[in-house]
Design brief:
Layout (H helix, E strand, L loop, with lengths): L4 E7 L3 H12 L2 E5 L4 E5 L6 E5 L7 E7 L3 H10 L3 E10 L2 E7 L5 E6 L13 E7 L3 H12 L3 E3 L5 E3 L7 E5 L9 E7 L3 H10 L3 E10 L2 E7 L5 E7 L2
Parallel strand pairs: 1-4, 5-8, 9-12, 13-16
Antiparallel strand pairs: 1-5, 2-3, 3-4, 6-7, 7-8, 9-13, 10-11, 11-12, 14-15, 15-16
């Protein structure tokens, strides 16, 4: 079985600003860890939660974490496949450890090893999808398939659909859409009304980057930036 993606991390220089933005936009429940300048968030069932924090370099970013059985072995494998170590391994308490690496496109990806019990139920729109993108999608698809044993279904357009593992969310690996950066990671929040969600996002300090558009399979998406400049998305099953 492949490594499930179970946590998303949204970083920016002003944690409190981002907590307010995502709380008002999506109704998440928060658990602050002030000593870490980090705030965990919990969402309604059906997706994953994560954390909002302040990066050491002050630069905004979005990352996702995969749960692995042997963090040291997985990190070593990532480095052998062309990744660059970015952080850790480090203990975070409760018998858990994390590490981070930069993949061949420069995307920073996290690893988690530790307890995997059921998280307490939260509220608001869950994170239900993620996208990894870079200039060489084939290279990235091969890297993550070899590293995590993910099943990746390749579409005619070159989009690699990552099949969700148990307790995690699925995602995709592709080249960037027009107007997007050369590489990055996006988290997608579930919406029941994309237009109304974008109105709320803009009212509390976000910016619409791409309005509603169909991506096939009965799904519509929209893209926005948060106040720190992180690019993320909304997804709605088309009626």
């Amino acid at each position: 079985m492949g490594a499930p993606v179970t946590h998303v991390e949204i970083m920016g220089p002003d944690r409190d600003q981002l907590v307010r933005f995502y709380g008002e936009s999506f109704g998440w429940l928060f658990e602050p860890h002030d000593e870490m300048t980090y705030t965990m968030f919990r969402t309604a069932p059906g997706g994953i939660g994560g954390g909002i924090g302040v990066p050491q370099d002050g630069k905004p970013s979005v990352s996702v974490y995969a749960e692995v059985e042997d963090l040291d072995a997985t990190l070593s494998q990532a480095l052998r496949l062309g990744a660059t170590g970015k952080m850790g391994p480090m203990d975070i308490g409760g018998g858990a450890r994390i590490a981070m690496f930069a993949d061949p496109a420069g995307n920073v990806f996290g690893l988690y090893e530790g307890p995997t019990g059921e998280p307490p139920e939260g509220a608001g729109s869950p994170v239900v999808w993620f996208d990894l993108f870079g200039p060489d999608a084939v290279q990235l698809q091969s890297f993550y398939r070899d590293l995590f044993e993910w099943k990746i279904d390749l579409g005619d357009d070159g989009y690699g659909h990552i099949v969700a593992e148990a307790d995690g969310v699925g995602g995709g690996i592709s080249t960037p859409m027009p107007g997007m950066p050369s590489h990055g990671i996006l988290a997608y929040m579930r919406s029941t009304n994309l237009e109304e969600s974008l109105k709320i996002i803009e009212r509390v300090g976000g910016t619409t980057v791409a309005p509603r558009q169909s991506v096939g399979d009965g799904l519509d998406i929209a893209l926005f930036t948060d106040p720190a400049g992180n690019l993320n998305g909304l997804v709605q099953r088309a009626s």
